[in-house]
Amino acid sequence: MASSKSKPSAGEISSGIDELAGAVAEKCNMADAAGGDTSVASSGATTQGAACLLVLGMAGSGKTTFVEKIQTYLTARQTPPYVLNLDPAVRHIPYQVNIDIRDSVNYKNVMKKFGLGPNGGIITSLNLFTTKFSGVLELLEKRKQQVEYMVFDTPGQIEVFTWSASGAIITEALADAFPTVVVYVMDVLTGSSPITFMSNMLYACSILYKSKLPFVIALNKVDLIDPTGVLRWITDFEAFDLAVEQEKSYAGNLSRSLGLILEEFYGAIKTVPVSARSGEGLPQLFKAVNESIEEYNRDYKPELEKMKEEQRKMKQQRAAARLERLKQEVLETSSASTLTTPLHQARKEAVSVGVFNDPDEGRGSQEQNGDDDNREEESFKRFLDSVKKGREKYS
Ligand SMILES: Nc1nc2c(ncn2[C@@H]2O[C@H](COP(=O)(O)OP(=O)(O)OP(=O)(O)O)[C@@H](O)[C@H]2O)c(=O)[nH]1
Questions:
Q1: Quick one: signal sequence residues (predicted)?
Q2: In angstroms, rounded to a whole number, what is the distance separating the alpha carbons of residues 122 and 104?
Q3: 156 CB less than 6 Å from ligand 1?
Q4: Does ligand 1 come within 6 angstroms of the Cβ of 191?
Q5: Does the model's pTM come out above 0.90?
Q6: ipTM for the complex?
């Protein structure tokens, strides 16, 4: 809920953002200097460079506990990860963090300063952090030969990251620079009801389609409940259909129909039962993660390069079309007027120095080229004269 104090002006907001963004850059460096030189990131040099693991999941699914456990697990295998916390509102972090958003942005101050409620405060803090994310990328770039995995813990309110502009910017920036895999932590205890399971799967599916990144589901808290039933729902539609049959509500019918549709989605993901508390299933999880990294290099990266190339071509085409329009305008103006106004003169000179010449256009007959050469010579002479005059004036 927004506070009752009067809203700050646009100018105040802008200067506040500058001030906080400045602090983000400064603190990122400090946090890295403090955390980056610890034993956590000091060994495990890799030849291929690090991969990013974006840990997402519903509030309470166990993301933070999971990050803590994988840090312990990887450190014991001499490949300690580089860990970043992107949750500005988390109170306690049980793992050793290399870059912590809370060192850069104080979300309570952000709430006060901009008159925001808790969710607005978290979103704005993440936005502020994102304005300086290029600084974070530079730090990651420096670390990428020393670690195998760079792990990102994300805000409890999943939508703050998955459906915000800053979440998209961070995900795209990482995926552009490093092999990136989404690890979606799902609480198997709450997911053991077919309807909650389906809600969770829909969420996972929407993230997959939005990010298009390799995707691993960590079916968490298997120390509390046997995940076999839930796993069967993923691999066998009949089993899910049977479970949902008992739900006579509208949600039950909907889940049933969605189950059919999501079959295709299940084929694109890897699901691994784990316990973030006991560490059970982590070797299998990293096997799935490593396969996903290969998938990124094999499928995602070339697709990304293709997209970038298409965008580059589109930009070129747009520029060529703009140039063509301008050329037409110049030609129309030249033929419509015989007046040599200063503007008209300037346009003629622009044509004469070849700015608008396009050799592929096929209008460069020898005669035309001869005209162009003459015009170029005249223009060059004029240029020399003006330089001479300028020198005389100042000598
Ligand atoms: N038994 C059991 N409990 C777990 C496991 N993973 C997490 N928990 C517990 O679940 C609760 C929530 O865990 P967190 O790690 O804080 O979950 P989170 O997703 O980071 O929570 P938010 O920050 O609110 O999104 C805590 O009480 C954890 O101890 C697990 O594998 N087994």
A1: none
A2: 13
A3: yes
A4: no
A5: no
A6: 0.98
